[in-house]
Amino acid sequence: MSLIFPEAKDMKTCVKKVVLNSGLFTVYSQVVIRGSDFPFSESNFTVQIDEQHLPIYFTKKAYQHENEIIQNFKFQLAAKTTFSQKVNPVYLVYSHSHGVTVKKRIEWRYIKFNDSFSNYKRLPFLFSKAYIDVSNNRTAFFYQTTGNSLSFTTREINISDTTKEQCKIRLGYILARMNPFSCFKNKIVFFEKFCEKYEESASILFEKCINEKITHVHFIIDKSAAAFRQIPEQYKKYVVQRNSLYHYFLFFSARCFISTESMNHIIDTNIYSPIARKRVFDKKYRYIFLQHGVMYMYSLKNRTDFICGKGMPNHAQVVISSNLEGEQFIENGKFKPENLILSGLPKFDRAKRNKSVL
User: Fold this and answer.
1) Single pTM value for the model
2) Which residue in 1, 168, 182, 218 has the fewest CB atoms around it within 10 Å?
């Protein structure tokens, strides 16, 4: 009798818990394989991060559920491990001496066994503690991507990584949850690149709102940045200091965000805080992407940061300058036509012809 080996579509794997202890990450996971009768052992599996393959260790005896084999396992990674990329997807790789190899992204959710292999039930939002190496200006942690899979990142230390900022972020979250006043929930928040710029469409639309007596708006910016000095005085009272408690409160309570950048820029790019990451994935706010040029002269093919449901929230809206541009967002960005705003970019409202240029 020939053995039936798994295919990628018949293998699913997920994270159950991530532990950081003494500079060592331990990731507890589960793999489920459907419809195969092959024998397997720990030696058949590795976890791949970048080009490195890590061994796995079975934590419980495998058991059968109808036609599915369920196996719990763990793998470990030294927190100081370096990779060629800052962001690294995590894969479970099955290999057999017969030459069969299956590679599957490890997902960040729980598999529920009812009638269907693909029936999922989300666990409470899981997170990994961060390893912060001050001497090397380095932060490392596992995290959940917008596509609900597991990735490992190493990057420079962000302001929001510190214990003080983590406490402020949590306090801002608590205050937003406790806030009974709708006037705060109706706030509209503007920001530009890294919350350090004031030169693109967001700043122009922000000023336009105030000029039109729409005053429940705020612009987030680092007041020590050179761009802050360019803001006219009449608008400065609506400006909020980046990384202030009120900044974090607005992040968790505002109903609408309008920006030339992704939501990753509103606090820190690739933020560690699990409640902040959860808020970015949230569908309880509006997000309007003003973009830069005509898609900033990018083709959207293979640009996951512009794809709806991946780099962009599922509920995002995008300002476009033409129907032709809109077709790019529909075909390659997976946006629905109703989520595109054909108005042209606000920054072009201030464009002036330089008569000295032929």
Assistant:
1) 0.80
2) 1
